[in-house]
Write a structure and sequence with these properties.
Shape: globular
Number of domains: 1
Helix content: 40-55%
Oligomer: single chain
Strand order of the largest sheet: 2-3-1-4
Protein name: HMA domain-containing protein
Radius of gyration: 16 Å
GO molecular function, one term: metal ion binding
Largest sheet: 4 strands, antiparallel
Strand content: 25-35%
Mean pLDDT: 86
InterPro entries: HMA_dom, HMA_dom_sf
Length: 96
């Protein structure tokens, strides 16, 4: 019985994590820790964003969304522009 309960709990946690959406943004103009802070702050304001990771060296920003939420393209572009950067590309990452 304990094994069955553990299995059910494990699968429910795993399925919730698997449904999160992740995106990789290529952003021009990221050069310093202040840039990292600024883009992180702007993207974190978007409803549903749970995590923002910035790679200054490669100009990449990984954004993770809550389960069932998608990254709103218009708001994302506007927030990046407002932060003083240029969005070069967006790639939805496969969580599988």
């Amino acid at each position: 019985m304990k094994k069955t309960l553990f299995l059910i709990l494990f699968l429910s946690v795993f399925s919730a994590v698997a449904e999160e959406s992740s995106y990789q943004l290529q952003v021009n103009g990221l050069a310093c820790p202040f840039c990292e802070y600024n883009i992180h702050k702007k993207l974190s304001k978007i409803e549903g964003v749970t995590e923002v990771k910035v790679n200054l060296k490669d100009g990449l920003v990984d954004v993770r969304m809550q389960e069932g939420k998608k990254l709103p393209e218009a708001q994302m572009k506007q927030n990046i522009t407002d932060a003083g950067f240029t969005l070069k590309s967006v790639k939805k990452l496969d969580e599988k």
